[in-house]
Every structure is written in structure tokens, then in C-alpha cells.
Write a structure and sequence with these properties.
Blueprint lengths: L1 H28 L2 H7 L4 H26 L7 H36 L1
Length: 112
């Protein structure tokens, strides 16, 4: 039982790191930060990048779970909760950045 808790704890840490790396890579590829500053629509790209990262995280989580042979001990819902929780951290962060920069850009355009 203790080894299952250790595997889940390590999986949660690695899931958060992988979600950050995957999401940041996708956002950099689509140049989202520049799009936010010039006013192009970037919200759809932010959400789509997070969904793609979530799907990849979920698939890798199930593959690792099956490779370790702990599939009967750990329910699939736990893997899904770890993947969703890890991705939610970064989705909230990027949505906050979008909201902050989008409002700043909108306010600055009315000032000029």
C-alpha cells in the first residue's frame, strides 16, 4: 500500500512538470504571448493547447500505469484526477495571464 502511495505522489509531481513543459512548448509554437499583446485571438489557442496537453498526459499516465503492472491496484479515475489536476494548474495560470494582458491592452487602446 505504501508503494502505491509513493507511486501516486511521484506521478503527481511528474505530471505537473510534464503538463507545464508540454503546454509551454505548444504556446511558444503558436506565439501566444505576442498574440495577446497585439490583440489577436489567443484564448482559443490557450484552451486548445491545454486540451492537447491533457490528452497527452492522460495517455502517458495510462501507459505508465500499465507498464508498471499496478493497473489493478490503482483505479483509472485516480490517473484521470492526477492528469486533470496537473493541467488545471497551468490552465488557470494561462487564463489569468490572458485576462490580465487582454484587459490591459483593452484599457490602453481606449487611453490613446
Amino acid at each position: 500500500m505504501l508503494s502505491v502511495i509513493g507511486v501516486l505522489s511521484a506521478s503527481a509531481v511528474f505530471a505537473i512538470l510534464f503538463a507545464y513543459l508540454c503546454t509551454s512548448f505548444l504556446l511558444a509554437q503558436f506565439n501566444v504571448y505576442r498574440r495577446m499583446l497585439v490583440g489577436e485571438k489567443s484564448l482559443l489557442i490557450i484552451v486548445a493547447s491545454n486540451i492537447v496537453s491533457l490528452v497527452l498526459l492522460w495517455i502517458i499516465g495510462f501507459a505508465l500505469l500499465n507498464a508498471t503492472g499496478r493497473h489493478p491496484q490503482v483505479p483509472a479515475a485516480v490517473v484521470a484526477m492526477i492528469a486533470v489536476g496537473a493541467q488545471a494548474v497551468w490552465l488557470i495560470r494561462y487564463l489569468w495571464l490572458y485576462r490580465r494582458d487582454h484587459l490591459r491592452l483593452h484599457f490602453e487602446s481606449y487611453e490613446n
